[in-house]
Design a protein that fits this description.
single chain; mainly alpha; 7 helices
């Protein structure tokens, strides 16, 4: 998030968490190299899902509610809504504590990954960032959103 200042959004910390979750959910290579490999510095798939919806309650209402606070425009919000619905549908089917393999082997996972990718690319572009840099660790995310 080194392009435009993402802190220009009123609820930029929530935006940062949503972007982080979408980034991880949108990258199959990352999922195999980190989640399947059990690397803990990124959390797991359940952590990413909760980061996507925890503060925002996007599991209860549309991202459109946050246009102007978390999301820059209705297009960002629409893409996030699609990603949230696809990911949550899978989580509800496999269970929140399911191993990462249950997500990755789910028939709907490729569509969920693509929806997350579409949203991630749009949000990264809105912040002037390269969507293809590797995701940040949870420690780096914490430092960004709660600087000392």
């Amino acid at each position: 998030m080194d392009g435009m200042p993402f802190t220009d959004m009123p609820w930029w910390r929530w935006r940062t968490n949503v972007r982080s979750a979408l980034h991880m959910l949108s990258d199959i290579r990352f999922q195999h190299e980190c989640w399947l490999a059990g690397r803990t510095e990124y959390g797991d798939v359940t952590d990413a899902v909760y980061r996507l919806v925890e503060d925002t309650w996007l599991d209860n209402w549309s991202a459109e509610k946050y246009v102007g606070t978390i999301f820059r425009d209705p297009q960002e919000a629409s893409l996030v809504d699609v990603a949230v619905l696809r990911v949550l549908r899978i989580m509800h089917q496999v269970g929140p504590d399911a191993p990462v393999t249950a997500y990755l082997e789910h028939a709907g996972w490729p569509e969920a990954v693509q929806a997350a990718r579409d949203a991630h690319v749009r949000l990264a572009a809105g912040d002037g960032d390269d969507p293809d840099v590797p995701p940040r660790t949870l420690e780096a995310l914490e430092l960004m959103t709660h600087p000392a």
